[in-house]
Amino acid sequence: MSKLGDAAAKAVTITSVETLSDGYTIHFSDGTSATIKNGQDGTTPTVGVKEEDGVLYWTVNGEFLLDNGQKVPAKGETPQFKIEDEKWKVSFDGENWEEVPVSGTVAPVLVMEETETEYVFTLGQTVIRIAKDKAFSLKVSADEQSVIPGKTLVLNYTLVGADETTHILAESKEFDVTVDEAAKSVKAQIPSDFVEGYILIKAVRNSDGRYSAQYVSLARDVYGTHGGTIVINDEGYVNW
Description:
Layout: H1 2-10, E1 14-20, E2 23-28, E3 33-37, E4 47-52, E5 55-60, E6 63-64, E7 66-67, E8 70-71, E9 80-84, E10 87-91, E11 98-99, E12 111-114, E13 118-123, E14 126-131, E15 137-140, E16 152-160, E17 166-171, E18 176-180, E19 185-189, E20 196-205, E21 210-219, E22 222-224, E23 228-232, E24 235-239
Antiparallel strand pairs: 1-2, 2-3, 4-5, 5-6, 7-8, 9-10, 10-11, 12-13, 13-14, 15-16, 16-19, 17-20, 18-19, 20-21, 21-22, 23-24
């Protein structure tokens, strides 16, 4: 968990996470990576980090790990553990070792939860939240509704990671489209002779050039935003 502690303390973000059979490999925005695995031994001391006065410190079984009576910041060298004379010992330099009290019989399992903006790692009582690398995405709300010639179709969307430089655009060859950024929606006027068409909704974050878009295909009577084929009157309309 040391790399996670360092990342949280330095505001480093996560670019990607690989799921392993017994843990995770996390890639950070500064080019480094860390592999975190669940413990194999049920009597292994639970190592984690805990925040105090804005600083992350190492913990063992929920208690602060001490070196000469001082709490150890969760950065720099990673503490090393070993079993000697049937006792767990810790070293901060690889040469000097001191006994670590061990309690409990079940080692906690590392759990990762992914949201649209961050990764949440939980190990026992330790919870570390690290933001995704400048997460930015536009998604048209999954829906199905009638596409009626002469009427107005409203497509709602969600936007993650927007800032004051973000702009939304919509384009189509078949429809007149307008964007309502306040309502997070796009309105399309359906022509009377409509058969099929598309709307491309785009989001651009000028502060870093990030771009996200969604292609919405429409066929008379229904529209869709997810892969598959819409079948109407035995005619197929590809949706991608």
